[in-house]
Amino acid sequence: MFRKILVTAAMLAAFGHAYAAVDVNTANEDALRGIKGIGAAKAKAILDERAAHGPFKDPADLGARVKGLGGHTVERLQAEGLAVGPAGAATGAQTAAAGQTKGAPAAGNTQKSSATVAVKK
After folding, report:
1. Distance from C-alpha of 95 to C-alpha of 115, rounded to nearest angstrom
2. What residues have CB less than 8 Å from 85, skipping those under 6 apart?
3. Hey, where are the domains in the chain?
4. What does the alpha-carbon distance between residue 37 and residue 70 come to, in Å, rounded to a whole number?
5. pTM reported for the whole predicted model
6. What is the dihedral of CA 39, 40, 46, 48, to 10 degrees?
7. Which of 60, 69, 73, 94 has the largest CB neighbor count within 10 A?
8. Can you identify the CATH homologous superfamily of domain 2-99?
9. In Å, what is the CA distance from 57 to each residue of 13, 32, 33?
């Protein structure tokens, strides 16, 4: 019986982690590429724009600043788990609180990590 409970808990944890939001303002290339519809070139464009001009304020800002990401595309990416702006920061904070580990990389760090860290301003 204990084994069944343990297996069920593990499956629920894996399922919840698979649908965790990816914050566009803190994600690395691997996390962005994990979103269906974002490939290597689009992830690089997002990271380059974020590095050059700072975090994205909202979905409209993301669509305006990154070539090839219009309003409908950004909406579709949000449905796939991409979080942008203040609402994305709240979702990212919940994800970070649930899975944050000691020594997690900072928002500007270029080390590869699967954790999402939200930064409040």
Report:
1. 8
2. 56, 57, 58, 59, 61
3. 2-99
4. 13
5. 0.57
6. -170
7. 69
8. AF1531-like domain (1.10.150.280)
9. 30, 17, 21
